[in-house]
Amino acid sequence: MASMATPKHIWEQQQSQMQREKNSGIISSNGSTTPIKDDKEEEMAKSALALFRAKEEEIERKKMEVRSKVQAYMGRVEEATRRLADIREELDALIDPMGKEVAILRKKMDTINRELKPLGQSCQKKVQIFYSKKKKRRKENTKKHLKPLMTRTRKKLN
What distance in Å separates the CA atoms of residue 27 and residue 120, rounded to the nearest whole number? Predict the structure, then answer.
């Protein structure tokens, strides 16, 4: 407990010790206390009181220093918070219009795709019909041209 003694506690101990010495019979034969003891006790009391006041002042000074440091830190934190809020607002303002534009473009693309899908299917059917007709004509033309050649070849072989 001695290592945790505060200046006030030390001062109180010294006061109680002085009181005990006064009450314990350090009285001279004529009934008065010795002047040396009185001066010594008074000096001890003054030094203890001065020590106590110095410690209190030091504690108060350190408390004020810590308070000012904390207030300065809190000021910096508040400023940083304001700056972050401003940056967030700016980013939201930049992102939001882009997001709206992208959404509008996606809707337009979906609409166009819906319109083009039936057109694409009809075109594909037309192309298939066109190629099937062309294929059919080619076969007919091939047969038409091959028929005389085949007849000639048969005649020659016979």
Answer: 124
Cβ atoms of 11 and 48 closer than 8 Å? yes
Burial of 15 (0-12, 13-18, 19+ CB in 10 A): middle
pTM above 0.70, yes or no: no
**pLDDT tens-digit profile of 108-131?**
999 999 999 998 899 899 999 999
Alpha-carbon distances, residue 8 vs 1, 14, 44, 52, 147 (angstroms): 14, 10, 14, 6, 131
For 141, the 3-state DSSP assignment is helix
How many other C-beta atoms can be found within 10 angstroms of the C-beta atom of residue 37? 15
80/75 Cα distance (integer angstroms): 9
5 DSSP assignment = -
Q: Quick one: tokens of 22?
A: 């006064």
> What contacts 45, CB < 8 A, 6 or more positions away?
14, 15, 18
Asked whether the beta carbons of 28 and 34 are under 8 A apart, the reply is yes
Of 46, 57, 59, nearest in space to 14 by CA? 46
